[in-house]
Request: fold
Amino acid sequence: MKSLIPVLFILSTFVVKAQINLKDSTVQVIGFWDRAEKQSYAVSLEKYKVNGSDTSAREKLKYDVEITIKDSTANSYTIEWFYRNYTTSSQNTLVQKMLAASEDVKILIKTDEFGAIQEVVNWQEVRDYIKKTTTMMRKEFKDVPNMDGIIDQVEKMYLTKGAVESQAILDAHQFYTFHAGKYKLGEVLEGRLKTANLYGTEPFDTDLTVYLDEINSEDNNYILRSTQIVNPQQLADATWTFLTAMATKMGKPGPKREELNNIANETTTASRIHGSGWVVYSIQTKTVTVDKTQTIEERIIEIK
Reply:
């Protein structure tokens, strides 16, 4: 295995227009995008629990996102992600209300010239929109016990620029996972990076492996795969802190710290990417294991 230092290293020069090099079996993942260019994608997010042979708590969310290149310079892209057409199998009224309020939301993401995420440009607009929505939810559900605590957790995801960029654009993080990297067929890159902690404390140390699985020169695309494994000690501490705080707000006893010793978080991502830098199909599966129970979240992004 080859060390990935830095992880998914940034290319130092931009000298070629072809991402696939058959001579040395390598690909460079670069966005060759023009201003006003757009693509439409269907996104599905499914969550469920597995305990032995039993599957439960299955919920599915579907929506569309239109990705448009709003601006293009020599060293950056400004890209709009426009969300709409949400449908869900959840019977949770709060979830349904939040999704209805999310219709037609636009998020502006700035990347470097290769397509690696740099920032969310309109994060304050996104924050204010969510705050307006949660304020409305507090009034509508004011008589529901413990609802304030749940809404508080939603708001924390959007309070700061860092929170929005790490927690509110998970689709985009999956989409641009491999951009700005160079990969060789059959070579496994490994390294360590920081990943978002949805519980609001410090980011997790995460072990990463990446490899180029397939080159399809005829169709000008290729498949890349990655695996991320979160530090289990840090994960257990953050989970315990979060669950304890939630239990306190609800007036219930929290979990014992030792109950979370056997916890793991693994995320695998596989993407087929066109030579233009547009993703054709991407699937990401996050598996959180606590003792014998697995909570699985699978997101699929597919070009329409």
